[in-house]
Amino acid sequence: MRLHRLIAIILLVESRGVVKAKEIASALEVSIRTIYRDIETLCQAGIPLMTTTGKNGGISFVSQYSLDLNHFYGDEVIQLYLTGMGIRPINETETKQKLQNALFKLEANLPDNFKSDIIKVKKRIYYDETPWWGEIKKIKYLELIRKAVIQSIKLKITYLRYQGDKSKRIIEPYGIVSKQLDWYLIAYDEYRKEIRTFKCERIVNIETLSETFRIPDNFSLESYWKNSENRFKKEKRVKEIYPVTVKVNKDHDFILKDLEILDSKLIDNKIIAVVNLYKYEFACIEALEIAGFAEIVEPLVLREHVKTGLTKILAIYK
Prior knowledge:
Blueprint lengths: L1 H15 L1 E2 L1 H8 L3 H13 L4 E4 L5 E4 L12 H11 L9 H15 L3 H13 L17 H10 L1 E8 L5 E14 L2 E8 L4 E6 L3 E10 L8 H19 L3 E7 L10 E8 L2 E7 L3 H11 L3 E5 L1 H18 L1
Antiparallel strand pairs: 1-3, 2-3, 4-5, 4-8, 5-6, 6-7, 9-11, 9-12, 10-11
């Protein structure tokens, strides 16, 4: 949204003093021309920005102008950034209150025409973060974990393993990953002497230690997560694979969207795809669900199962 971009430009200029249009464009992933158009809009709205040329030039506020970001606390700015990434606070927690306080302060510093946009957004856009079935899992120590990550403080945790037993670890929290309402802590495990992934909901107790740590210069949270995610998928494919060949009309290709496709080809406007349905029992259920849009070609035992299932359904409605 353009409103978010305009706010981001104001915050960048306020925090750095002078910032080049190229740097802003790179940070916000838009063209330099777009940034200059935004600067013009902000100036027309009464925000006194100016541009200077030369080695030390860039975009800045006119002399002695400030939005007074000293009214913001560090945690509030962090929450604004997380929200910009699409990471919203969970439940009615201290984190959510800090985010609301930060947004109130930010709104107070915006020109009137921007405030009207914010009012429209509040009235016309509603974000429902709850799943259709069940409830969002409560993560008791998420705020404490986040602080330890930001401040590089060691933690002593009690972790509930998948098998049901508990173990105590001393860890160095490197970062947090949020994926589809689940939260994961990436940390160096001092006992195992390696970087590991911990599901935050399984951390049943935390003790903050007085020691700090330093993350290795060559560590990248994004790279680690992507690599571990790929390893997990490969392991699952090796352990659970049940290839099923299906034939789908090209205009019904949406049926393949949520399936793991191992191979596919287009013949006479029909997609011949090999999908992984993991095991026979699961394949029996999935195959009947997609039978109205996709023909089960192989394996024959699954094809026969679908034929039998459809015959029974037809008998009910006969």
